[in-house]
Amino acid sequence: MDVIYPLAVPKGRRLCCEVCEAPAERVCSACTVTYYCSLLHQRADWVSIHEKICQLLIPLRTTMPFFNSEEERQHGLHQLQQRQKHLIEFCYTVAQKYLFEGKHEDAVPAALHSLRFRRNVHGLSSVELVPAYLLLAEASLGMGRIVQAEEYLSQAQWTVLKSTDCSNATYSLLHRNLGLLYIAKKNNEEARYHLANDIYFSSCAFGTEDTRTSGGYFHLANIFYGLRKLDLADTLYTKVADIWYNYVNDHYQTLLQIRAQKPDLLGKRLVNDTGLDEAQDAEAIRILTSVLNIRESAFTKSPKKIILVLKTLAMLCYLMMKSSKAKEYAIRALTLAQENNNVVEQKIIQEFLNVISAEEDRPAN
Amino acid sequence: MTTFPPLPMARTRLTILARQKLSCSKGTIPRSQLIKEKDDIDHYLEKNFKGLSKEEVAAFRNSYKKSICVDMLRDGYHKSFTELFGLMEKWESLKKAANLKSIFWLQKPLEERPDTLDHFYYYLTRAETAEREGYLEDVYNNLYALACYFSDPADKWVRNHFYERCFQMAQLIKVDGGKKEAESEAHMGLLYEEEGELQKAAEHYEAFHHLTQGRRWTDQDGRALNLLACERLLRIYRQLADKMVENEDYKQAIKILRKASEVAKEGNDRTMEGEASYYLGMAHLSAGDYDTALADLNTYSQISTEQDDDLSLGRAYEAIAKVLQCKGETTEAIKYLEKVVKIARNNFQSLDVVRASTMLGDIYNEKGKYSKASKFFQQAFDTTVDLRNMSLMDETKVHYGIAKAHQMMLAMNNCIGSDNVRGLDCLLSWKESRSHLELDPEQELDPEKELDPKQGESRRSTTSMPQSSTEHTEEVASFPDNQNKTET
């Protein structure tokens, strides 16, 4: 039975729902430390994130066990903090992934968790809270709740203003979200201003040709596309595609090189790796698919650029171990190259297809 | 390059605000335009609105560099942004490298120069618009203007960066038949020449020359590009040849200089031809090939007489004299040198006078005619005194002293060699006053004869007639005269 009675709880103790902070009526039977107000919320939370962190929450929400010595107590405290930090990162990544996949509803509980843990670890007005606020804002935007998004964003902005040592990356993220907000509010001027700031800060932090900067370029391109300034949008899309192509190509080439060398004693092969975490993977896929769609629906088709995007997508999927999708994209690229009699590209794509087939044929290690 | 007039730029809002903060510009925009978020601003509110719009805040808070970057990006000029960002990063790395070597790095960073940033914004955005529309010539023009703007020697790396961009752009411009390409080749050549990489510079100049052959293009000042190409090519060949002569690689040097003279002939400019033959002659001289050197230098002197160019004629004669001196034909050399002195005097070229007189003196010195040598050295010394050039003065003083010493050498030898008291007295008085030593006029006339050992006795016999010498002493010091007079 996982129903609890609020009146039966000890005096002074209030049990609140994870999701909405209303008085709690149910408890999760797996961990017994998480409370919900209704079945709806429990289900939502379980699907979103509780399934993944259920057991991890137990040590955080119960009292610390009794330790014999000061050392052990310190160790226990340290362990607790480590667990909390791990949870923060994990929730954040999961929430981001959901956002990039477009599942905004699911992202909210995860983001809330992240926020709560950050608040516990760092305090109420620390800069560390800003990314969590931004996530929530983005999720709200995705769900169409603009007012709520604005609220979260103002909170984030205020925190940034008050803090003295905010990193460029955080500024960049803040401005990106502000830009997205203004896009949703259809205020293109402000959106452009904020996205320009975003690109500037992320260039300061990571460099102008980094994959993280590409997000800013992408959104700016979307604005121009919406404003029907197609040539401007086109140059920006090209830039985004180039950045991603270079990145993925580098990884792919190093992988091939390492493979070409003698395998080590155990004959183990290097696992495919994109060098990005899941969220960035999802972001990459989203950006590239949008660019591809736009390019394909463009008035004047430029096959070279489409081939580039297809190649990038193929390599990315391959590195992410989704060989079937990789093959699909590669075959599309090949047909296009053949249509345009582009011999060089055909060769490259053919080689790539061979590598994928070789990978598939070999029994999995 | 000429200084730039202030640009009539359409500055964006942010930059206007930021410049107000910097207090180096004028012009404001009405606040109602800035405060976009408030709708329905009426006249009263506009006048009395207290507060700052978001952009004003941004202008105050951000650095000017950030305002410019944000403006660039906002309008979609991401390539300009990337380039500017790259340049600033390069500045940082240069600064770091310089910091490792020395403490002082006086150059102001690009961020702190608002005018420079304005220029960047203006030209880079225009270049990008042109690139988007495919007007490569416009792109080239804008990049070139930006390169010209950085004429400060400390900003050389920026200018070189833009010259390289112009070069890349010019390769793509085929519409105007390669004129821009030729110009950019010239710039790249100049770049490398300044850095000292003569080989690469020579390659670029050759390409420039090749492209301008047969075309009647002129650059902005109206000079024919072909002529310019020949000139530059000659210059670079000469520098290369100089370096090779230093390394004693004469054959290569001569080969290059021959190429240079061919180029000069093509250029249809007699002065250039003349100069080319001059340098060829000098190279042959260093190589030791005197006859060819003479031939070349004769061509040079002919061309100079045709052109009525006295200075180059003087140079030619001087060089010829040097060659002759090396060969050993000193009388011919002397004739030429005297011509040089005359020409130089006529044209008030004091340095040439000095040089020529020194050379003359040198020749006479070697021949043994010490008095003539000292006369010419005195001439040189006087000219340097007029010029007030300390190092030259010192040099000519030394030569003059040596010649005088040689003059005195004979008399000194006699005095030392003679075994009478008079000689000793002479020496002593000279040591005290360091003025001119007595000389027998007869002995002075023919020093070569005196050195002949057979004539040694005749010398001894002539020393026994000192009385006549006293009357003929040239010098100021009367003490030895008095002494001699009292003795005799």
Automatic annotation (TrEMBL), chain A:
Q: Which residues form a coiled coil?
A: none
Question: Which controlled-vocabulary keywords does the entry list?
Answer: Metal-binding, Zinc, Zinc-finger
Indicate yes or no for the key word Metal-binding: yes
- The membrane spanning regions, by residue number, are none
Specify the MYND-type domain's residue ranges. Answer: 17-54
Q: Could you give a GO molecular-function term held by this entry?
A: zinc ion binding
InterPro entries membership: TPR-like_helical_dom_sf, TPR_rpt, Zinc_finger_MYND_domain, Znf_MYND
Question: What Pfam families does its record include?
Answer: zf-MYND
**Gene3D superfamilies per the record?**
6.10.140.2220, Tetratricopeptide repeat domain (1.25.40.10)
Name of the featured protein:
Zinc finger MYND domain-containing protein 12 isoform X1
Q: What organism does the UniProt record list as the source?
A: Dipodomys ordii
TrEMBL record, chain B:
TPR repeat start-end pairs: 354-387
> Which residues lie in Basic and acidic residues bias regions?
446-460
PROSITE patterns from the UniProt entry: TPR
Q: Which InterPro entries match?
A: Bac_ResReg_Asp_Phosphatase, TPR-like_helical_dom_sf, TPR_rpt
This entry carries the following GO cellular component terms, namely: cytoplasm; sperm flagellum
Q: State the encoding gene.
A: Ttc29
Q: Where is the composition biased (Polar residues)?
A: 461-470
| Residue ranges of the region described as Disordered | 437-488
Q: What biological function has been recorded for the protein in this entry?
A: Axonemal protein which is implicated in axonemal and/or peri-axonemal structure assembly and regulates flagellum assembly and beating and therefore sperm motility.
Record's protein name: Tetratricopeptide repeat protein 29
Keywords of the record, alphabetical order, are:
Cytoplasm, Repeat, TPR repeat
Its primary localisation, in coarse terms, equals cytoplasm
Query: Where found?
Result: Cytoplasm
Pfam (any one): TPR_16
| GO BP terms, alphabetized | cilium movement
